[in-house]
């Protein structure tokens, strides 16, 4: 894990167990023993199949759900201990999330400017000229303020609304932005624009981003660090390039094999069986029983066994 002073947040042995039902409660282990550091100005991809626990980790960081076990340390403090209103507000001043569907974030009855009014009303952002600050932030995300402000959400595209939300995060000068499937609803050309913008903003403003995605290629394109999740466990963690060059956990290896290459045609003979992955992972854990999570090289760790 990172040793430098640039760590803004540390996630330590984080677990979340959901309980549903009252008479016959069912327990879902959505995340188990997840540890990683978030560094200033760095993009971390959180990659894994549907149901692997990615959004759960994002929600825990955003304090939208309670931690079952473990800690999230921000500025030396366990965020579970942040309970009073003023302190919670202070936390959200610096830690924000953008979710998959930008339309859901905007109230269709109000002009989009409202998302800016809300943050200026809630927080002292330290700008002398509010209107200029908003216009500058919009230019930063390649939106023309004259064509954006005053519009209703339905008059803008999904990509424009997401850029508006990135502009808002920039205005707030957040430390950590959780981007959950941020661009999955955008077309390919808009995607690259939004991604590049995110990377630039990180470098320029020192904002750290957790970029949650299913897409391995996007993860590689955008991130400095990667976290691979499988069934609630963090199975591989570290420098993106190292993981991609030396994928070691069987689930990570399967992810790479499953990426179709341009020019490849679909082969009806080729079988992909999820049970195969489950078996491979179990075999791998059994062969390595007792090893646990091991740093196999600098800034590259692998879960060799779950016991
Ligand atoms: N509120 C909840 N109550 C009970 N179980 C939940 C709840 N939220 C999530 N889960 C379960 O926790 C597991 C992890 O869910 P999570 O939403 O974190 O997955 P994900 O990796 O974000 O998946 P996707 O890629 O589909 O968004 C799933 O098995 C899910 O059914
Ligand atoms: Mg999710």
TrEMBL record:
A Pfam family matched in the record: oligo_HPY
Cited InterPro entries: AAA+_ATPase (IPR003593), ABC_transporter-like_ATP-bd (IPR003439), ABC_transporter-like_CS (IPR017871), Oligopep_ABC_C (IPR013563), P-loop_NTPase (IPR027417)
Keyword flag Chloroplast: no
Ranges of residues in domain ABC transporter: 9-256
Alphabetic keyword roster: ATP-binding, Nucleotide-binding, Transport
CDD domains per record: ABC_NikE_OppD_transporters
Gene Ontology annotations of biological process type: peptide transport
Annotated PANTHER family: ABC-TYPE DIPEPTIDE/OLIGOPEPTIDE TRANSPORT SYSTEM, ATPASE COMPONENT, ABC-TYPE DIPEPTIDE_OLIGOPEPTIDE TRANSPORT SYSTEM, ATPASE COMPONENT
Protein name per the record: Mannoside ABC transport system, ATP-binding protein 2
Organism the protein comes from: Halanaerobium saccharolyticum subsp. saccharolyticum DSM 6643
């Amino acid at each position: 894990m990172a040793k430098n002073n640039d760590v803004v947040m540390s996630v330590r042995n984080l677990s979340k167990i959901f309980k549903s039902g009252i008479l016959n409660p069912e327990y879902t282990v959505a995340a188990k023993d997840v540890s990683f550091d978030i560094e200033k100005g760095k993009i971390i991809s959180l990659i894994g199949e549907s149901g692997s626990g990615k959004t759960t980790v994002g929600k825990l960081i955003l304090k939208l759900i309670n931690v079952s076990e473990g800690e999230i340390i921000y500025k030396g403090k366990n965020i579970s201990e942040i309970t009073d209103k003023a302190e919670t507000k202070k936390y959200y001043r610096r830690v924000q999330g953008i979710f998959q569907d930008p339309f859901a974030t905007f109230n269709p009855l109000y002009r989009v400017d409202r998302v800016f009014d809300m943050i200026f009303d809630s927080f002292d952002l330290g700008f002398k000229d509010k209107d200029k600050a908003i216009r500058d932030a919009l230019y930063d995300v390649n939106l023309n303020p004259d064509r954006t402000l005053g519009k209703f959400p339905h008059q803008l595209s999904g990509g424009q609304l997401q850029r508006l939300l990135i502009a808002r995060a920039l205005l707030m000068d957040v430390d950590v932005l959780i981007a959950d499937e941020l661009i999955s609803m955008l077309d390919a050309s808009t995607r690259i624009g939004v991604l590049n913008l995110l990377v630039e903003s990180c470098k320029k403003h020192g904002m750290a981003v957790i970029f949650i995605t299913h897409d391995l290629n996007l993860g590689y394109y955008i991130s400095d660090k990667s976290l691979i999740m499988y069934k609630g466990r963090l199975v591989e963690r570290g420098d993106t390039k190292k993981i991609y060059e030396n994928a070691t956990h069987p689930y990570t290896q399967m992810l790479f094999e499953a990426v179709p290459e341009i020019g490849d045609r679909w082969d009806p003979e080729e079988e992909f069986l999820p049970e195969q992955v489950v078996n491979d992972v179990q075999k791998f854990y059994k062969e390595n029983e007792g090893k646990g999570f091991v740093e196999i090289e600098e800034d590259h760790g692998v879960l060799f066994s779950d016991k």
